[in-house]
From TrEMBL:
The protein's name in its UniProt record: Type IV pilus assembly PilZ
The species this protein was found in: Allochromatium vinosum (strain ATCC 17899 / DSM 180 / NBRC 103801 / NCIMB 10441 / D) (Chromatium vinosum)
Classification via SUPFAM superfamilies: PilZ domain-like
Domain of life: Bacteria
Amino acid sequence: MRYGHTSSPSQATLLDLSWGGALCQTPRALPISDRPLWLILPWALGETIEIETTLLRQKDLANGRHLLALRFQRLSLLHQARLEKLLGRLQADDVQSNAPMAPVLVATLEVSIQTVDEWRWALGEIAKGRLRIRAPADFTPGQSVGLQFNGVPTRARLRLRARVLATESKAMLGIRVMRSTILTLEFEHPLEVLRQWVEWLLRQIPPDVKPSSPLADLQQQTSQSAVIPARLVLSEGERCALEIGFPEALDYLMTAWGDVSTFEMVFRQLLFGDTGASGTWTPEAWEELQLLQDVHDQVFGLSEARRIRLKVGRDVR
């Protein structure tokens, strides 16, 4: 452990390590100081993982040592990648030793980027150190999350860290029974590192790229707003065929959930190609689409026009 960048490191015993913090023992109590406290972990070939932390708690132990609870404050993109690899190895070791199954490292949100213009806008916000997204679940201010981006020509393959600064519950457009949460996030990386990364990504974007589908056209206005939709990332085994293969179509359908007329219009557009998502349905995805329609019909009913059409030619004997 080390105060600031220039002081000599002192020894500490690592008791527990997670995505968001660590528990350590030290032979001496730490002085109260405004200087950043750095946790230094060993890495391969003599390299290290250096993490700027905040001291949450300090407790004197009966053996004369001191227990420290640290929260990770910020770290570089390189050291973030190393930390996640280290945590993955520790989890694998726990599995091989028949230890209780470790929980998921951190809640991860996949930010769905629909157009190149939206990607440019999002990168501009990231360079400022903050981003607002719409999430399908509640989060607590102060909670750390992982962010990964999907749907852009040049994908941000390195996951970012962010902390929830504020939450705001909102009713989604056209939905009566579902709500989403708008999260204001602050990235847990040095601002200069984020700016350099954003500049590199911006240079990878082709200068003149048109939206790839009519669905992207429908989403273009999002790039001008202050909120981008995101979804929780689950394991492949927990995700349905629509989530895995057709996430944009599923999002499009969910925006109309609970509104009978709008849902039927959106469903027809998915079936007949108005969104650019049809024509490639897998059997599993097609079955899930029909199930969603059946559930919606049973819960919210049918429009008058559709009820009349269903009566035509029906065998009533």
